Request: fold
Amino acid sequence: MNLHEYQGKGILKSFGVAVPESIVADTPEKALEAAKSLQESTGSESWAIKAQIHAGGRGKGGGVKIAKSLEEVTQFANDILGMQLVTPQTDAKGKLVQLILVEQSIYYPGPSEIQEFYVSVLLNRETGKNTIMYSTEGGMDIEKVAEETPHLIFNEEIDPAVGIQGFQCRKIAFNLGLSGQAFKEMTKFVAALYKAYDAIDASLFEINPVFKTSDDRIFAADSKVSIDDNALYRHKDIAEMRDDTQEDPTEVEAASHDLNFVKLDGNVGCMVNGAGLAMATMDIIKLSGGEPANFLDVGGTANAERVEKAFRIILKDESVKAILVNIFGGIVRCDRVAQGVVDAYNNIGDIKVPIIVRLQGTNAIEGKEIIDNSGLKVISAILLQDAADRVKEVLA
Amino acid sequence: MSVLVNKDSKIIVQGFTGNEGAFHAEQMIDYGTNVVGGVTPGKGGQTHLDKPVYNTVDQAVTAAGADVSIIFVPPPFAADAIMESAAAGIKVIICITEGIPTKDMIKVKEYLKNYDCRLVGPNCPGVITPGEAKVGIMPGFIHNPGRIGIVSRSGTLTYEAVDQVTKAGMGQSTCIGIGGDPIIGTTTKDAVKMLMEDDDTDGIVMIGEIGGGMEAEAAYYVRDHGTKPVVGFIAGQTAPEGRTMGHAGAIVGGAEDTAEAKMRIMRECGIAVVESPATIGAKMAELMAVLA
Reply:
């Protein structure tokens, strides 16, 4: 589950990670109030106005602006709130901005040079350990840094038995080229950051940039925080932060019925039990001359109700020209699934696209008979290759 | 011989009396698997499915000589169940449970280093040596005793491969579902290596999917140590990039992450990679015919 920047920063702050003072706002009036309040508490004379959406690259789409006066705060808040923000990480429609973060500016002048670093915490799947990945090249696209100057990216693996150690924090701060007060601040920052990551069952922390101010303070200037969905049961407070408006509405609806659905751009819909087989089914659609319109895993209990729901979700997409149902019956019996398909078809009534149902495994023959005797315009198949050939035929 | 489990394995079920555990334990017993009992804390001394219930894995090892465990314990308690098995001296731990927090699995992985045992899973369909022992949730009847080993990260796609191998007139030595989670006990390479060293296996089907570097690692093993034909398939050639992975994860995953890259590496390492999941069985039959 992804969090907004402001939510991530709230959590970081509660673990002692330094973040700039900020206030979230949903109207220009509240944004102005926020700016005034920050002026009073921090003395800041300029403010970052930042769109809160679940996507990076917000600045490139005009979703982050620096306001140098209170008038500009109102103006930028007006501009950004309500916009469909398109960034390199969103689709062409972009995401609706409903909240902005008004933040004290940390670009103030001072005795030392301002610096931007990159720090993330994530799982190294190969070793099964968490790793702190960091770089002197902050504030830019880290993928580009990895490609062009990989020697500027460092990794520090954390021993699960003892957690992060002091020498590791010092090593990171030294590698980032820091000394004096900034060095001390960075070691504290890294220790607190890892503590937070571990405590909230995060699956990714990406702080880009980590900001060194002109008076040698270290701040998380941005925050990208993802939480392990499997661990949300023990973080009820964080689970409540979920913002469904940031997800595809059809995917949210599917999730509410326990269907794992991802919308794609193709012309052949599919409904499959099991994620691996679902991906394989998408691949076979492509090999048959179509393009998959979705990924849909109906899970272990493909009963009539779920099959109907899944059909309705797939049929919402008008570019779908055919639907391939691919069920390998193990615990789930194919005759039950077949009956589910027939019932769903009758309930929905006006399905205009051809449906190919491939049933294999437990009671596959009985399932095929139910489909064949239903009188419906549903094509049945037993072998995966047959199903692929049928897809090819209906697309021709 | 086969690998991991056979007719002599003494198997216990952790979460024996729960819904999932009871259902699948019964299926396993019906298949002829040597289930010697189960563990449900607090229900020790009872009998379930005509088998003894123990309070702890330790008791099951002492009283029944258990050496294999299959886990159906709910996610919040599953990591604990795995570690209990390891500490009690179980040699093969098969964890079916889906949805264990990654943080718990990081601890488990570290903990298991101190024990001489092998974990398969979590979030997997289990392991079957057809005709001898079904230690998992797979439908038994699609399998046929034979000499093809199968390794896969997913459930139903494994069944698909098994079914094709059976329908192509062959059978399976052992089928290993290694699981789809970020942290798993047995990797693709571990499983391929076991089957490569198994005298009862003539050919190997290796099924992977997008994400992680496990298939590439297994492919390099096949290149350097392979003595048997390997058929490979990678699911997710059409999967959109970056849907589940963050930015930073993609970097660590590296360029060997995509289906295309994995298939290329596997081909370069001498694996017979099929593009269509419908031709896994046919390809294996073809390679076996050449051998014969």
